[in-house]
Amino acid sequence: MPWLSALKETTRAGLAIERPTLEPLVAVRSTAGVAVVMTLMLTYGSPALAVSSAFGAFAAGLATFQRSWRPRPVLALGVAVGLGVSTFLGYLAASSHVLFVVLLAAWTLLAGMAWAVGPVSGLVATQTVAVMLITVTLPTSVAGAAEHAGLIAFGGLVQALLIVVLPIRPWGRQRDVLADALAAEADYARRLRHDPVAHFDPQPLMEARSAAELTPRQARSRPRQLGGPRGLAERLRPVLAALADPVVGAPAEGPERDRVRDLLGAAATVLDAVARSVRRGGPVRLPSEALDVLQVPESGPMLSGPARRSAYRLIALLGDAVEGSDEPVKAGGRSSGEYRHLLRPTVYRLVPVALRAVRREARWSSPIGRHAVRVSAVASVGYVLGTALPLGHGYWAPMASVMVMRPDFAQTYSRGVARFVGTVVGVLLGAAVTALLHPDPYVCAALAVACVGLLYLLTGTGYIVASACIGGYVVFLLGVVGEGWSQTVQARVALTLLGGLLAMAAYALFPVWETRRLRDRLAEWLRANGEYSLAVLGAYARPDEPRSRRVREALLDSRAARREWEDTAERAQKEPVRHRGLSRSAERAAEAALATMGRVTMLMEAHLPDAGAEPSPGAGEFATALRDTLPDAVEAVRDRRPPDWTPLRKKLTDWTAAEGDTGVAVRGAELLADALDELEAALSPGPGGRNRATRRAS
Q1: Residues with Cβ < 8 Å from 634, sequence gap 6 or more?
Q2: Distance (Å, rounded) from C-alpha 556 to C-alpha 64?
Q3: How far is residue 657's CA from residue 610's CA, in Å, rounded to a whole number?
Q4: Using an 8 Å Cβ cutoff, are 644 and 680 in contact?
Q5: What is the structure's pLDDT at 523?
Q6: Which of 3-17, 319-333, 552-566 has the lowest mean pLDDT?
Q7: Residue of 693, 452, 690 whose CA lies nearest to 579
Q8: Alpha helix segments (H runs only) across 332-440
Q9: I need a labelling partner for 544 at 20 to 30 A (CA). Which of 94, 195, 497, 661 fits?
Q10: In this predicted model, what pLDDT tens digit does every residue of 35-79 receive, in sequence order?
């Protein structure tokens, strides 16, 4: 994409406003935390203390709106501790500009590396940089520094206490995510009625799995209704696909296909009912028509072969889903050792995990490592330039840079545009209200709290809306300490523009393009898909060996690799960089081939043999050939060479000749080899191979 087109696309994304689901009660509770802190400080302290403490409550409340599955009080307390430490260290170094710039560079570098742990950690670390830049402008002593740090931490503590005292829809986010996963399965079943090879986006299942990870404390209070449907949803997907597929399921037309369509429609109805039950915490209400369809008919169209087995499996799984969800919602009183749940490390045990993640990304080729260096340099330069300009509040320039910079191009540029436009709108509106009303400090505090409430309420609508609310919040907050609005408007707009330009220039001069990582992501997806296929083929070759855990872990790895590829490809489309060895047409064809490979393996998983079934020597030999060929194929994708699957094709020919073209395993292996041939054609040099792969994918 040319630079001009990329800038237009990112500008359009930055100015976009979405319509998210509002959470007014949660917004009111978080706003009340800011109001309580400011009221206490204005009553028993000073306007300067009110401003200082308000930042802690504001940042802690903002962190609780992020997409994290940890308890909200833990997030608020974590933000409070981080803000307090950064504030205190900033005060200690504020007496010397050189020392403060060195501290700012080091702290910002660490904050940039925090993105290695996760987006929520990166956002919280960014907030600590912003508060360090703001609060050190208030002159004080070492004792005063400790006092200000304590007050900022107090703001986060108030937010945590309000969450505990005033719980609003506990486990609501987990309920929504699990219900979304079940609803996605229902939508998938409906689409399979008309398109037997319909695509399924695994993102809802991945989100549900993340939400199901619990600490031992969470496991003791999780509602029983949230304990089982996720696993059933995972097992339902391959069964639905196998039932609808015309190759390993019912024929494409005829009475059996009509019976399959009826079963898929009834399954969708049941899954929607279970999703509503989980979301609302009530009983499951099923229509009688769906129940009649899920009974084995005494006459009429009957399924046979693999389709019949899939139908029985589907009916059993739907029954388990209804039975597991249609029960009272109450907390368990047993010890954590009696629960079987996905482990989420506690905050204490998260420290070594975070250190390993940071150490893994601390290299020159890492996007996170380059982002940390980039944001550290920009913050330092921005602080020096901002303090040198005769505008006052020089910290606004580096703060704007830090808040908009992200590890990828599209987010950095779109947030930079949104930050500037939103700040101009918010500052002008705030200045207009201040000029017309001439409010006293208490009215300014009330208006600042109102801006915070709007920000919390409209979180998720877009960064431009958040920037406008923050702009007005800053104007009114400075009015609490007697700052004039005329100087605020000029300085805020000019320094925000400076900070945004520095952030954009830094990424243009020191980029990490996702386009250049496409082949690596494609190779990782091929490797993960290959491991998934090997796990399933191994179950056919040795049915008596335990395999469920290996197959499940391989499936999760394959799903994660596909998500990484899709995220990278989406970001690469918005970059002003030409492809390096992987054109857009080849990218689409390769993606279609690997998606087919994963789907075929999933269909084979739906018909895994029982433990007492006869082993399949052909499946074992085919798996051995795939295991031997896979490493070279992965490296070929990275090295811009088409992979060679000739040994795999030879084993498939021998297998078919020995056992005939019958059985799910043989048909699945043939489809698997066809998908790998499509991948080879997609990555073949020259237009002939790419065009042939594109025609196959279409």
Answers
A1: 523, 524, 526, 527, 530
A2: 28
A3: 25
A4: yes
A5: 93
A6: 319-333
A7: 690
A8: 347-361, 367-388, 396-404, 409-437
A9: 661
A10: 999 999 888 888 877 887 888 889 888 888 888 888 888 888 888
Distance from chain centroid for Cα 99: 37
Residues 6+ apart with CB under 8 A from 194: none
User: Which pTM was predicted?
Assistant: 0.83
**3-class SS at 343?**
strand
Helix (H) or strand (E) holding 477: helix 463-480
Look at strands 342-343 and 213-214 and give their pairing.
parallel
In sequence order, what are the beta bridge partners of 68? none
Q: Where are the beta strands (DSSP E) in 137-291?
A: 213-214
Residue identified by tokens 């395999």 is 547
Amino acid in position 127: Q
3-state secondary structure of 640: coil
Q: Give mean pLDDT, residues 402-426.
A: 90
Distance in angstroms (rounded) separating the CA atoms of residues 325 and 486: 59
- Backbone dihedral angles phi then psi of residue 484, each to the nearest 5 degrees: -75, 140
pLDDT band at residue 291 under the 50/70/90 scheme: confident
For residue 213, the cross-strand partners are 342
Could you give the angle at the alpha carbon of 450 between the alpha carbons of 448 and 452, nearest 5°?
Answer: 75
Where on the phi/psi map is residue 36: left (φ > 0), alpha (ψ -120 to 50), or beta? alpha
∠ CA 274-278-282, nearest 5°, is 90
- Over the stretch 193-224, which tens digit does the pLDDT of each residue have? 989 888 888 888 888 888 888 877 777 788 87
The whole-angstrom separation of Cα 478 and Cα 447 is 11
> Whole-angstrom Cα distance, residue 31 to residue 380?
32
Token look-up 């698997």 returns 672
